[in-house]
Prior knowledge:
Structural class: mainly alpha
Radius of gyration: 21 Å
Order of helices and strands: HHHHHHHHHHHHHHHH
Largest sheet: none
Strand content: under 5%
Number of helices: 16
Distance between the termini: 60 Å
Amino acid sequence: MFFQPQTKLLLFFILIAIVSCKEKSIIGNVTTSREWKSELTEYEKLLNTDPSFNNFQIGMLKISQLLVDTNFQDNRKDILLKGIEWCKKMNDGFYSLVYKKEYVKSFPQDAKSEQYLFDITKTLDEDQQELEVKIMYDGILKRWPQNKEAKENWLRIKRDVSEFDFFLNETGNKMFGTTEQFRPDSARVAQFISFSETFAYAYPDDKRTVKLLMTGAQTAKTGMVPGKAIELYDWVWRYYPKSEDAAMALFLKGFTYETDLNNKEFAIDAYKTFLYKYPGHPQTKEVAFLLENINTPQKELLKKLEN
């Protein structure tokens, strides 16, 4: 089934917004008796009757909404699998990767993650990103050493994973020009972000992973790719909740929404979630101030800060 690239890209950003941004269900909602399968029944019937792109889009958005509904966090695995199943029926690899990536982040040691991580790696292989691909196959083999196909591909690619540090540093040092002339290099910014994501997928338990994701997020924010910054900040706070960077990642997610995208609704959700989850954090007063003044005009806000 073929979908127009522009339409697919639009839906992709809608999915990312829903999956990685809305947090209001965490705070104060009353849990009602609901069952996720019954909520998808009508959409599945609709898709089976008329497998059009519009109906597929409706189904994808519904699944994304269920993924952020706190009533269904225990069903996250099954909901993601349902999304992947629908994508397979529609012969859609584009959105399937969105859910497979989310699955791998959520359940890095799960048996299905072995195949999904392999699928993600194959898309990188098709783009001839040899160093990233080598790292991904290396990560698969470290978790699943009996994966023969990964081993064959690991041997096929004549790169060494030790090159990663060199190219990460080289890219990082050159992506924003000089101290005298700040000039973001979009290609190098994208490369640095790609390195950060690749390392996190390949080595989710490595002690460097969270720091790389945070650096990648800040790189995306500075390099004027705020949507990617939000995705990486969300990766840290959602999947590494015990890390020392989790709270800051959630704060910066909200701050990026407010300052870079002027999306006050999502910023408010993130700030409220921060205050709910981290009441004793050193950043609490700043977050409370930002939340209280999120609709204050800039001139008035400057006066408040001066006083």
